[in-house]
Fold this sequence. Notes:
Blueprint: H1 3-14, H2 18-22, E1 58-61, E2 64-68, E3 84-88, E4 91-94, H3 100-113, H4 118-123, H5 139-144, H6 161-182, H7 200-204, E5 216-217, E6 227-228, H8 247-255, E7 261-262, E8 265-266, E9 303-304, E10 307-308, E11 336-342, H9 347-350, E12 363-365, E13 384-386, E14 391-393, E15 396-398, H10 404-408, H11 410-413, E16 426-430, E17 447-450, E18 458-459, E19 463-465
Parallel strand pairs: 11-18
Antiparallel strand pairs: 1-4, 2-3, 4-19, 5-6, 7-8, 9-10, 11-16, 12-13, 14-15, 16-17
Amino acid sequence: MKRTTRYLILAFAFGLPMSFIACNKKERSSTTGWNYNDPKNGGFQKISLKKDPVGPGLVPIEGGTFVMGSLEQDLAYENDNTERRVTVTSFYMDETEVRNIDWLEYLYWLGRVYKGMPEVYERALPDSLVWRKPLAYNEPYVDNYLRHPAFADYPVVGVSWSQASEYCIWRTDRANESILVNKGILKSDPNQTDANNFNTDSYYAGQYEGVVKKNVKNLDPTATNKTRSVRYSDGILLPGSYRLPSEAEWEYAALALKGNVKYENITQKKIYPWNGLTLRSSEGKTQGLFLANFKRGRGDNAGIAGYLNDNADITSPAKSYLPNDYGLYCMAGNVNEWVQDVYRPLSFEDISDQNPFRGNQFTVKQKDSKGVYAKKDSLGRIPRVPDTVGRLVDGTKIIKKYDVRDQDDEATLYGYGKTSLVNNRSRVYKGGSWNDRAYWLTPGARRFMDQDSSSAEVGFRCAMGRVGAPGVGKTKRPNFK
């Protein structure tokens, strides 16, 4: 009796689902006819993902086209954000701004793991003195804002662009480590110390093994080990890293046109992350209340006692007010948010109309002359270096950088360090804050600051790229299925 027939008889006799039968039939390559995932055929694997791995705290943002740029008057006559149509690929973004409790968890981990390098912990400390002003009594915020439980769910401030970027690296590693522990591949290891800690790149490169519980099955018949560690191609770990969103991603997510679209037509104009052109709620019991935490006018940060309009004299909890149509909180007001881009006043003329972004330079994980990854550094990470490999075109090596023209012309174009604050350390922040007027709440508004500077009015949230088809959830468009 053939094996398939035998399974059919068993299925009908015992009420087994047909999926039981299907899983016993190996899938064949439509190109070669050889079986996938078969050790007898060399063990080439085809991984089928039912859904994308998504990192904690992230919500999906379905991409598309929109008009990027400020819709408000250019009061400062900067002329640095002219409207232009661009397309943004689908991605993920944090539901809220990164909170004090999130940063305290980060600090706790750094202090516990990098015991031999206390400077790592110290570098990550937010600048609490951003609250201090010569002619204001803000000392309670200096002492309490980060660490007192009353402020646990408030957005972290006093964090520079560089510190925020380091947090993104740490968060990626902790999320991936959590996936491996939850899937029973690694055991939780609270004894990680200094360079001996889980880092995604060093794990992939075989420079960190961890406390193995049960590795995945090795289908390669020539391998000496019957199991192996997880590879990127297994689709088990996150497909990308937590990072700061690009300026285009942030602006697209904040504007949230999703709820105003019908058959590719925008049904209502937006200036802010909510529907309509006003700053106040028009709904039922909340009618008349402000929809964001901002400064209404000089000396008016919260409203009048007995009716505190936005109910916040400084920042407010990260889930205050109504979320926008993507489910994102406080994309206007509360705190400004760092984005990944380097600031240039003419970026709108230079950058691509597909995933526009301006950075500094492409980097790669460092390898030696034999193509072996460099030894991990004191933080447990594989060093990254500028990508100088490039490719040959007509015998000439071409190395792509983000801002080649600016670097070539930096002495004449901006007069770096002499006449301008615009340089490769100038990073964009957006969104408006508790201490800003309504003008800055529009998603198109942009300002910049040195990447190592910080403020009581600037925080951040993380993003992550999405792999596969751009559609997210249920769609209103017809399909061919």
